[in-house]
Amino acid sequence: MKDIGKNIKRIRQAKGMTQDAMAEVLFVTRQTVSNYENGRSRPDLDMLLKISEVLETDIHTIIYGPPIPQSKKDSYKWLGISAGIFVAVTALYVALCILFPKGTVFGYQYSARLVVQLALLPLMLFVFGWVLMHCLGLSCSLQQINSRKGNIPRIVMLFVLVFFVVIPAPYIVFTAIAGYRSYVYHSVSMRFPYIPILQEAFQGILFLIDKVPFVYVLLGSLCWILGLPSIKTKRADTTSEIK
To answer: DSSP 3-state assignment of 60?
Structure first.
């Protein structure tokens, strides 16, 4: 309700109508229109109905502003979900880092620390990059590339799956089992078998996590730019919007 004046001014300017022209049609002075728009006075219900007719819109738009398009609602919903995931993963990461500080080298504590580095840190940075670009997209009206067009988004998604799941998953599972056995039996003798190419790829991922973890932020940002995951939106009903 407090933005009625701003709504009137915005709609009037969008239609290219001056205060003098609007005042003439409403049979009031230009100063009265100015007072409405500046909030010095508020039009009554009859005047609101007249203003909505003059501006060719409905009274709800005058009072509450234009409705938010469905696509915007979906974007905000995705932002809330991804931001919630980021907060949850970050909280878990910080808690485990406190419980198992860097440099831990014995038993299940070392295993837990390695799982944190392999799973939580990349996920946290990846989601941060996606959330960051999503915020910039909403505030600066940046557009995503349609993920249904071309093979590049599919290649990037395949790369992400390999980077986050295929290569580190066996080591994460193995480390978790080793840590569990160490915690239960207080000693463990397990060695992951050497697998050509996979071992070298895993060493590369460890290097990225340790030396240039910002790569995961860039990867999350790239996924947003390419529209991954695809945000399905419905067309907004424009019958009540300003033409």
So the answer is: helix
- Within a 10 A sphere around the Cβ of 163, how many other Cβ atoms? 19
Domains of the chain in sequence order: 4-64 (1.10.260.40), 70-225 (no CATH)
Return the structure tokens found at 84: 């919630």
Residue pair 31/21 in contact by the 8 Å Cβ criterion: no
Closest CA relative to residue 133, chosen from 221, 231, 213, 71: 221
CA distance 167 to 160: 11
Considering the entire predicted model, what is its pTM?
0.58
Residues 6+ apart with CB under 8 A from 75: 134, 137, 138, 231, 233
What six digits make up the tokens of 175? 């480390």
The predicted model gives 174-192 an average pLDDT of 75
pLDDT at 146: 57
149 contacts 129 by C-beta, under 8 angstroms: no
Burial zone of 237 (CB within 10 Å; 0-12 exposed, 13-18 middle, 19+ buried) = exposed
Under 8 Å between Cβ of 243 and 56: yes
Are 238 and 150 in contact by the 8 Å Cβ rule? The answer is no
Q: Report whether the peptide linkage leading into residue 229 is cis, meaning its omega lies within 30 degrees of zero.
A: yes
pLDDT tens-digit readout, 56-76: 888 888 888 876 565 677 788
C-alpha 23/C-alpha 3 separation (Å) is: 20
Helix, strand, or coil (residue 204): helix
Whole-Å CA distances, 12 to 9, 46, 47, 154: 5, 18, 15, 46
